[in-house]
Specification:
Elements: H1 2-54
């Protein structure tokens, strides 16, 4: 009986840990996307504007 309770508590902690890990991964991907967009945004804008001006 006590072994079952201990197993349930451990499983809950592992679920919480996995949730935090997923949240950190999502945050890292969001920061990487924002940084990439910031760096490449002006370059892409200039390329599109050049194509529009060519017409």
């Amino acid at each position: 009986m006590l072994g079952d309770i201990g197993h349930q508590l451990t499983a809950r902690r592992e679920d919480g840990q996995a949730l935090v890990e997923y949240a950190l991964i999502i945050a890292f991907v969001a920061i990487a996307c924002a940084a990439t967009l910031g760096v490449l945004g002006t370059t892409v804008d200039a390329a599109i504007q050049g194509a529009v001006n060519a017409f």
